[in-house]
Amino acid sequence: MYTQLLKHYWLKSVRAPGYYKNLIVNIFVGITMLYFLVFFVFLGFILPRILEEVVPGVDPSETFNGLLIYMVILVLLMRFLFQPLSTINLQSYQVLPVKRSYLVNYLLIRPLFNPANYLSLCFAIPFSISGIGPVYGPSGAFRFILIIIFLVWFDTLLASYLKRRFGSSIAGILLFLAVMAGVGVLEYFGIFSVFGQSQQFFGLLIGQPLGWTVILLFAVAAFLINKGFFARNYYPEEFDRKVTRKQQAGRQNFTFMQRFGKIGEMIALIMKLVLRHKRTKNVLYSSLIFLFYGLLFYPNEIYKENDAMLIFIAIFVTGIGMILFGQWIINWEGSYFDFLMTRDIDTQSYIRANYLLLMSLCIGSFILTTPYFLFGKEIAINHIVAFLYNAGVNIHVYLFGATYNSKRLELSKGSAMNMQGVTYKNFIVVIPLLAVPMGLVGIFSLFSAQHIALLILATVGLAGIIFRKQLLEITEKQFLNRKYILCEGFRKIE
Amino acid sequence: MIQAENLTKLYGGIAVLNIPAITITEGESFGLVGNNGAGKTTFFRLILDLIEASSGEVCIDGEKVARRDSWKSKVGSFLDESFLIDFLTPDEYFAFTGKVYGKSEGDVAAFLESMKEFFNGEILGSKKLIRDLSKGNQKKTGIAAALLSDPQILILDEPFTALDPSSQIRLKRMLNELKGSRKMTMLISSHDLNHVTEVCDRIVVLEKGVVVRDTHTTPDTLKELEQYFAV
């Protein structure tokens, strides 16, 4: 029975329309996946050396054990945010003599068969050889791998429970972040060390012959919590449930936006669009996480001298909202494009609304990243230049580029890894966005003249802001030329 | 009011619409009938500037529609689901449409009040999103939004399909009232010969993109049409 259900699932994904069509996107995704795979394996092998650098004098396996609890929690959070709930088209099975508990078990266990969930093994197995084996012996390394597998099960199951139970509420995430910040403070001042506890706990488990059973019990407990939840809340349609929408609608009022008339109305509409679709909400969360991207690089001495890298990070971080959402501009209104084109909305207002939206995203991300100024004058200058470049050049590139993307974006269906509606054009637009400034700064910095490059970028950006009217007129003309192609493309439902 | 000249639309070299000349005068109710693929929707999309004509042009009040905005304030239209914003509730959708046309909240409320009978107690005030409505209620929402701006020209594609019998009768009554009281110019396509002859004064039959009949409605029209489409 289970094998049948799994087979149906497999057929469903393979026979989904668009699976074969999107060859170029698949290749891009494939290359990215391969890159990460190789990267993880490599990381697993060199991790002991890195850990020794970071915490000298302590055995790498000890350090790893201490960090493990944080990784478990982090992965849980990521899964909570991005893992799609496994659903099943119940109507087709309801009429068949299939036991309910079969379906529940199947729903819960299916994610465990997803190979993507075991990506962490690519890095755990090499590390068990390079870091765990030398200390705990081969059997210890084997137990370590088992523990990692069961931790994946635990995280996956617990995340789907939390998601079914709480939905994806922003308040919950903020609460979680606050608690984590509290734990971090306790750790930092040495009041209570979660790190130390985790170190002892996992060290003990790896050392004991049957230590892995404890984690297995955790996974089983998570499974049972899920089962219990289903037993208490069972309605046939809830198998398929995502988020209860009834309360969602009507909560968001953007009266402050409505003062700007038509343009404000259109921006308020897009804000509703973002908040009422899972895929766009996921991107919103991602962009919040990416705001911290700079922390990976700025404290690091290695990058201090790499000016090209620094400007890349500055542009990426200060423009994150625009970069992530900009690739969907116009395109994401595809499902009601005919409506927009036949209402009393002139082309100028339409383009201007999109421009203002991107501009506010730009300004928003820039303000949120001002704390990075604490890393010094150079970083602050980089960020200001990056902001000018984003607001003056990249916005126009995105808007102009958007007229070429006539593929309908299905927002209602979707999860974090959904590539529907993404074409190679989305990747091409990134080149002028990031590669041009990086290259410019890189070349000038060879002659220690990176400041001239920054000056050029800032001037071009400023010019783009000052001459926005003229630039937008070009985009308007382009939009009118492409209008029919967009209309036709958006009408095609995949 | 609406003029088309030498209007053709080719797809892959094949003409799906070929109208040498047609004029729709103010206040006229224009019914478009024809089998699937006859070019009804294509004609409407050309008037609404959603597709580009291969040759010729459409003018509203003497002004070309192609790549212009001025006609949009005069025309209300509902062709298909791409005229709905599916993640809004009907109330939000009407409010948005009203704002776009510069209507006050009071105007919109008064208009919706007049639509109460047509909505039959559903649609308004519910927190359901448009994508969760039934096909029939989606259609009612779209038709109402087309009327919301008090347009001089109304364009509806297959307005009767998916509606229940009572709603079909209410819609017919509503359209006839609008025709009488506001001199609204209407373009309505339909597969249902009964309904379209009851509402429209002029019936145009399209076949493979060509106008094959263009008559004013008389008591015999329905019979003639039935004969024409009989197989």
From TrEMBL, chain B:
<keyword id="KW-0547">Nucleotide-binding</keyword>
<dbReference type="InterPro" id="IPR051782">
    <property type="entry name" value="ABC_Transporter_VariousFunc"/>
</dbReference>
<dbReference type="InterPro" id="IPR003439">
    <property type="entry name" value="ABC_transporter-like_ATP-bd"/>
</dbReference>
<protein>
    <submittedName>
        <fullName>Putative ABC transporter ATP-binding protein YhcH</fullName>
    </submittedName>
</protein>
<dbReference type="GO" id="GO:0005524">
    <property type="term" value="F:ATP binding"/>
</dbReference>
<feature type="domain" description="ABC transporter">
    <location>
        <begin position="2"/>
        <end position="230"/>
    </location>
</feature>
<dbReference type="InterPro" id="IPR003593">
    <property type="entry name" value="AAA+_ATPase"/>
</dbReference>
<dbReference type="GO" id="GO:0016887">
    <property type="term" value="F:ATP hydrolysis activity"/>
</dbReference>
<dbReference type="Pfam" id="PF00005">
    <property type="entry name" value="ABC_tran"/>
</dbReference>
<keyword id="KW-0813">Transport</keyword>
<dbReference type="InterPro" id="IPR027417">
    <property type="entry name" value="P-loop_NTPase"/>
</dbReference>
<keyword id="KW-0067">ATP-binding</keyword>
